Amino acid sequence: MLISTRGRYALRVLTDMAEHDGGGYLPLKEVAARQGISEKYLESVLKVLVRSGILTGMRGKGGGYRLALPPGECTVGQVLRLTEETLAPVACLEPEAAPCPRSAQCRTLAMWQGLDKVIGEYLDGITIGDLIDGK
């Protein structure tokens, strides 16, 4: 499992927005400048977060983006599942994977399932609020 720039940027942007939350909308341009991310690329990342309900967006003057959830209610696991194709450590555990014909005799399947569970529980146990607090 390798987390892409899309997933990493989503987490950076969410922590930035939580830290600069004044109750209003934050312009994309400001967030992109603070994080050193291209506005165009950032816009594609934010669209995913808006569609999922993590962010809300508003166009026009005074528009931008803001958190739709409190930072303590948005988990890293939730964000990475939206931005990454998979968090599974092996292909046979991916959500859309066809049943493996070798699973009945696979000596390593239980180990991979255990690792997948540990990864999920760990990432689901960390919130954007925790990242801001340095936990």
From TrEMBL:
SUPFAM superfamilies: Winged helix' DNA-binding domain (SSF46785). It comes from the Bacteria. One of its GO terms (molecular function) is DNA-binding transcription factor activity. GO terms for cellular component: cytosol. It comes from Acutalibacter muris. Keywords: DNA-binding. Coiled coil: none annotated. PROSITE patterns: HTH_RRF2_2. NCBIfam families: rrf2_super. This is Rrf2 family transcriptional regulator.
